[in-house]
Every structure is written in C-alpha cells, then in structure tokens.
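Let's study a protein:

___
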Amino acid sequence: MAKNPGQNNNQEEGPPDLDELLNDLGNKIGRIFGKKEAPQKGSKPNPSPQNTNPTSGNDHLPITPILLIIVLIWAATGFYVVDQGSRGVVLRFGKNTEVTMPGPRWHIPFPVESVEVVNLEQVRTIEVGYRSAGDGAARSKELKESLMLTDDENIIDLQFAVQYNLKSVEDYLFNNRSAESSVRGAAESAIREIVGKSKMDFALYEGREEIAVKTKKLMQEILDRYNTGINVTSVTMQNAQPPEQVQASFDDAVKAKQDLERQKNEGQAYANDIVPKAKGTASRLTAEAQGYRLKVENEAKGNASRFEQVLTQYDRAPEVMRDRLYIEAQEQILSNVSKVFVDQKNSNSLLYLPLDKLIQQTSPVNKDVTSPIVNVTPQVDINQTQTPLQNLERTRDAFKSRDRETR
C-alpha cells in the first residue's frame, strides 16, 4: 500500500491507533516465546522467511525490567494494616511466626506467608434458650437449651445472653475450632450447674442477678481451662419462668404469695405507726405524773415549812401574827373582788368615780352578784382611789367602832 505524505503528516499529529498498539505489544510478547507476529491491521502478510526469525531485527523486549516490575508488584502485596484493637497473626507456611500490633505492616507475600487479622475488642453475643429474629419479629424459644432442673426438683424455663471478646489471639486461632460453640457449651454447663444448686423461687426472683454473676465466673473458669482465649464480659438474664403447662397455676400461687407479703407489709406499717404513738403517749403521761408528784410534794413541803415559820413567829407575838394573818387573808380575798369598801366616818364626801373604767371592768357575772355587805357605795376603781391595804385598815377600824358602840 502506497504511502501518502499528506496522510503521514495527519497520522503523526493525531493519537496512535489502539489496535496497532495492542498488535505491537502482542508481537513483542510472541517473539519472546518464539511465536510469529500477528499481521497488522490493513497490511498483507509477508511470506519472506526472514520475517519469521524472532531474533532478527532490533525489536528485542528487555526481560529484566519486566521481571523487576513483577517482583515489585508481588512484594507490594505483602503490605497490610492492623486496625486499633486488633492483632495480626503472621503464618509462614501455616506456622505461627509473629503477632503484629496495630499499624501498617509488611510480610513476605503469598505463598510464603499469610496474615490473619483478628479483632480483640469486638464484643460478640450468643443467645442461650432463644434466638432473636431480625426486623423486630418475635424471638423463638429453644427448649432444649432453656429447660433446667432446680434443687427442689422443679423445672424452669431460663433464657439468657452471653457477651464475650478475645484476650489471646493464638489461643483463639489455634485452640478453637468454633469459638461460638465453645462459649455456648460452657454457658449451658455453667448455668445448669448453678441452677441445679438453687431453689426455684430463688432462681425466678431474688437470685437472678446472683445466678448471672456465678455463671459468668464459672464460664470463665471453664474457658480458661481449655485455653480458648475467650474473655466473658457479661451474662444477662433475659427471662425466667416456669414451663407453659403449669404457668396458670404458678401465677395463682405467686399472686397468693404477693397478697400475703402485702398484708404483712400493711400490718407492719400499721404497727410502725401505732406503737411509736402509744409509746410517746405513755412517756408523756409518765412525765406528767412525775411532774405532778414533784409539784405536790414541793407544795406540801413549802406549806409545812411556811407553817413552821409562822408558828415560830406566832409563839413570839401572837397578837401581831393574828393581825397580820387577818390582813393578808383579807388582801387576798378582796384583791379578786371588783367592789370598793368606803368608810363613811373617816372618808371624804367627795369621791371620784371613773364610770367609764368601771363599765369596762364590770363583767356580766359581777352585775348579777349582789353583796350582803352594808354601807357599800357604787363601784370605784381601786387604782384611782385607795389601795387595798388602806381599805382593809379602815374597814377594820369601822368594825371595831361598831363593836364599841354596841357594847
């Protein structure tokens, strides 16, 4: 095919043909392995025997750079990254040679070495006695796992969940065929042993948390004994109830027991309310009685002492003591009376009568009470006239004068 100079210029300016590049690369690779060149697109095959010689011309492909590129690509496949909380286990022909920490790492690529990255901090969960269904569906029961026998020979339906992570990568990879099966078997063995030593009421009510703690401890001991490399983080009780066949009867028994406890609590609350009040009332009455007794005793002792003192003075001056006792008695009596005694002989004819204060001080009881005493003037305010002691002296003088006149 004749070449056109104009066409060559246009081809040099445009991009190369992809088919020609692929054919050229195929021909070079074919010459390396002794194959014939593929005919180029739009060209006729050359029957000349000189073109069939793979070593002819200057089209030899360098083998060393290609091998170097292949080695670099193979070596690059050995790079790997270990995430935080994970460990990388390097296996050389299946044998554990190294445990790498988090970060970028490199190992001899396959088939010499391989790496398994294991997450230690990931929390895994298994369910014993039930299986949760996705999308909010009801969970299904596994009666073979949940039915257990208690110490008092009763059957209970116990469901719980176990959460665990890893603490040893080597034990997890090389001593376990299935970590989930190991944890499930240890959980069933531990919970059955703990429940088998407990009463039914203890397992269903007050002892659920204690059973979970003991189960976790026993599970860890079993897994450590077999070097599983598993760490049990928590055991959570999901449900504990008697079998469905006796559920109604058991509910009645539980209700009766709850009523009994409620009545006991109500009685205890009533006793706690009444007993302290009764004790307080008794203490108050006792204290009042003691105070009254001391009051009476002290008054009696005071009166006796006063009488003895008065008797002593009376023996010394009988007349004076009689007058004094008379005056004190009259003062005590007349101090509670709202009436005023006026001596007609020695008193003045002009008396000031504060009627406004007399009206205020006069009570309805005093208005109805009349006094048989003669020579009584209208009520006068004591504070505005004379003192009770002066009135007593004048009254006594009046009585004495009357006695003389009658004699």
